[in-house]
Amino acid sequence: MASLQVTTGLLGVGLAIVILYLIRRDHLYLMHGLFWVAVAIAAAALGAWHGLIDQLAHWSGIQYPPALLLLLACIVLFVKALHADMVNTRIERDVRRLNQRLAMLEADADATRHAPSLPTSSSSESLP
Hints:
This protein is an all-alpha fold. 79% of the residues lie in helices and 0% in strands.
């Protein structure tokens, strides 16, 4: 049991280090990295605190503690996927709006480029 806790704790710390490295190298957006750092902290806490998952399972009425761990992992991944879809939808909407604005600007530029020039009146023509 102790080797499992050491492994879990090391995985949590290792994951936190990798996430911080990816954020530092700008391979991972800071807000997304914070989520994964929280996951790494939770894994490290499960490794450091003996019997935490057993206590949580007993408190929530789940008979088999690893089932609680799997349930929590599924819920976290579901929430992460939902959040990623929401961000993706916002980005797609913004890109669609930018494309529409660009098309309107290009249409205005073409219209002003192909519009006939108005004759300019000279100052001598306006005198009586």
